[in-house]
Design a protein that fits this description.
Helix content is about 45%, strand content about 15%. By secondary structure, it is an alpha/beta fold. It has one domain: Divalent-metal-dependent TIM barrel enzymes (TIM Barrel), CATH 3.20.20. Helix 1 links the parallel strand 1 and strand 2. The longest helix has 20 residues. One of its GO terms (molecular function) is isomerase activity. It comes from Scleromatobacter humisilvae.
Length: about 300
């Protein structure tokens, strides 16, 4: 029986996975059948027509904005460094609101100047969440696998619970989870209502042997789910989250140097294949895409 909960609307793409100017990226994502997009701040501020034109392009695309990324190295600082990052955060919240994004992604700090004190980290995240409240924006805190003190999602979840703000939740990234080999059994301790974003990617090799290789792989050699060496783990992650009650967005965040040399439409079609696989084969859900039924009918006639 076809279920209505498994449409393509559950999946989106990050603009950072595509080459080219913002309007071209948005067109490729839309024409691939997606209805949502995860925006990068660089796509807006770097748009040749200026910020207002970039915002207009997002609105004209008809795509729902999954979220906005990314605020880095925010927590654990003091003095002038803390004040500086608060100003940056306010500017990013303004941009986030301008494009209608309801989620701001924040990555755990890699700064050598950041404290590892979890109560201090929680205090800073609480402050950020309070700044976001008037905008109606939620903060998704993600553990970078090379973070200074928060590098796995159970650690991120700990400081989120300490901060205790309703608009502060977890951002999950399958790459970082796989790279650190965090047991998927740890997912059982999460409140699915406090998971604000799930980003999906895979990579080609079985294991990562150093932090340097982890960073290099993350920034240059990710692939879409179903294309890499960890497809079964990505599938288990998605299925487990769904079984636990997660009904939020999935977005494909694939940093890949090869994809930066390929037409955006081609890369977007690869993402669509990943959405088909996860939606139909893994979650046993329907993922209707433009022209899909015509393709099936043609295949049956052939």
């Amino acid at each position: 029986m076809t279920q209505t909960t498994g449409r393509i609307d559950d999946f989106g793409m990050d603009t950072i996975s595509l080459a080219g100017p913002l309007p071209q990226k948005l067109q490729a994502i839309r024409e691939a059948g997606f209805t949502q997009v995860m925006l990068s701040a660089r796509d807006l501020v770097g748009h040749e027509g200026g910020l207002d034109a970039a915002i207009a392009a997002v609105r004209a695309s008809g795509l729902r904005v999954t979220g906005f990324q990314v605020l880095r190295d925010f927590e654990g600082l003091s003095g002038q460094m803390h004040d500086y990052k608060v100003d940056i955060a306010k500017s990013m919240l303004d941009l986030c609101a301008a494009v209608g994004a309801k989620v701001l992604l924040v990555c755990s700090s890699t700064s050598a100047h950041a404290s590892g004190d979890r109560d201090l980290i929680a205090r800073d995240l609480r402050k950020l969440a309070m700044l976001a409240l008037p905008y109606g924006i939620r903060i998704a805190f993600e553990a970078l696998s090379w973070g200074r003190s928060i590098e796995q999602f159970p650690d991120a979840w700990d400081v989120i619970c300490r901060a205790d703000m309703p608009n502060l939740g977890l951002g999950l990234d399958s790459f970082h989870l796989l790279a650190t080999r965090t047991p998927l059994t740890e997912l059982q301790w999460l409140d699915p209502q406090r998971i604000f974003l799930v980003q999906l990617a895979d990579f080609m090799w079985q294991e990562i042997r150093s932090v340097e290789e982890r960073i290099s792989t993350a920034r240059h050699f990710r692939v879409f789910p179903g294309e890499g060496a960890h497809s079964a783990d990505v599938a288990t992650l998605v299925a487990t989250l769904h079984a636990q009650g997660y009904r939020g967005d999935f977005s494909f965040e694939v940093f890949n140097d090869d994809y930066q040399q390929i037409a955006p439409a081609v890369v977007a079609r690869r993402a669509r294949q990943a959405a088909n696989w996860l939606g139909e084969d893994i979650l046993r859900r329907s993922v209707p895409l433009p022209g899909l039924m015509r393709l099936r009918e043609a295949s049956a006639r052939g």
